Amino acid sequence: MNDEIIRNKKLFLLDMDGTIYLEDELIDGASEFIDKLIAKNINYVFLTNNSSKSAREYLVKLEKLGIPATIDNIFTAGMATALYLRNIKEGARIFVMGTQALKNEFREYAFDVVETGDDDIDYVVAGYDTELTYEKLKIATLYLASGVPFIATNPDLVYPMSKTRFLPDCGSMCQMLEIATGKKPKYIGKPRREMVDVIAKRMNIELSDIAMVGDRLYTDIALGINAGITSICLLSGETRREELPTSEIKPDFVFESIAELIPIMN
């Protein structure tokens, strides 16, 4: 019966880091699982909180890894943040503590992205900044201290690497700004259910026909719970099995990796 619940889904929302790959290596079974979805004409969207890359950069990475995808198969926290802010104020002036790719993505959504601390701005936006400098932290801190609203693309504390190693992610970087200013950001991206609602509406798919597959309890699985969709936790990234009994966030299903989903889809 549990297998049938998964097998009958019409759309799989797939986290990438820690779910499909670790750094530049595919996780065993990832390619085969995508092939299975394609063969069964089941939709899939890569839903990532990693705002360090643009959707186009993810397309290039997936292509190099041999994973079939188009721009319609990718929805990032950076894209979700841009849509959120555009609904509030089109063309807003923003300072982005993020990568050049994230800045360019906001420019594609017609935002005025400033590079220094000398301008009047509407928002400070923090992302997973793999190009972080102390100067960026300084500029963001001074803006926040002056009362500029604080937005962040995602709450992830760490970015998973191979061999159970981790790097600081957006949430950790935002904690530095919180400590310096006392200001907490409004986080966009997973686990906010809006990411699911946008995709479900765009693809005309009922929530009951969607599953979220990911490796983080507080983002991927919490998103599934918040959106009212099936949640599948994989232990190939951040979450460890020993965390599950004491966690308040309970996934519907738990598997060691995406490879264990392949026989279920037969």
Task: Please explain how this structure is put together.
The protein is α/β, with parallel strands linked by helices and 266 residues long. It has a domain at 78-187: Rossmann fold (3-Layer(aba) Sandwich). Helix content is 35%, strand content 20%. It has nine helices and 15 strands. The chain has helices spanning 2-7, 30-39, 55-64, 77-88, 100-108, 134-145, 170-181, 194-203, 217-227; strands at residues 11-14, 21-22, 25-26, 43-48, 74-76, 93-97, 112-114, 123-126, 150-152, 158-160, 166-168, 186-187, 210-214, 230-234, 253-255. Strands 5-4-1-13-14-15 form a six-stranded parallel β-sheet, with helices on both faces. The protein has a five-stranded parallel β-sheet with strand order 7-6-8-9-12, sandwiched between helices. The protein has a two-stranded antiparallel ribbon with strand order 2-3. α6 links the parallel β8 (123-126) and β9. The mean pLDDT is 94.
Question: Could you give the topology of this structure?
Answer:
Elements: H1 2-7, E1 11-14, E2 21-22, E3 25-26, H2 30-39, E4 43-48, H3 55-64, E5 74-76, H4 77-88, E6 93-97, H5 100-108, E7 112-114, E8 123-126, H6 134-145, E9 150-152, E10 158-160, E11 166-168, H7 170-181, E12 186-187, H8 194-203, E13 210-214, H9 217-227, E14 230-234, E15 253-255
Parallel strand pairs: 1-4, 1-13, 4-5, 6-7, 6-8, 8-9, 9-12, 13-14, 14-15
Antiparallel strand pairs: 2-3, 10-11
